[in-house]
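In this supplementary section we document a worked example of the pipeline. Step one takes a protein sequence of length 105 as its only input; no multiple sequence alignment statistics are reported here. Step two produces a three-dimensional model, which step three serialises into structure tokens for compact storage. The input and output of this example are shown verbatim.
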Amino acid sequence: MSPDEGGDMEEELERFEAEVEFQIYKEYRDVLPMFRYVVETERRFYLANAVDLTRHAEDGAAWFELQLEDAWVWDMYRPARFLKTVRVLTFRDVNIEEVERSGGV
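The serialised model returned by step three reads:
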């Protein structure tokens, strides 16, 4: 394989990843109205209809346990993004936002 072929493969992979990310963005935009919460962790981005966050502290270290129900996950490597339940354990920040409903719904 010549150096040019390696560069072409990298560009093709980048193009493919950009296309997949754009498809996921379009899916996110379409499914957002179906969910009540937007949840962001250091590794993933979720939409969910039920969220339970528990803070744990052991030996001076804090960690979080996050339970999501009826969820959608932003992950380009996952073939099925709709999930019945999700459990996340993390030592990092968790951001939970309630989705603002238009029309007072």
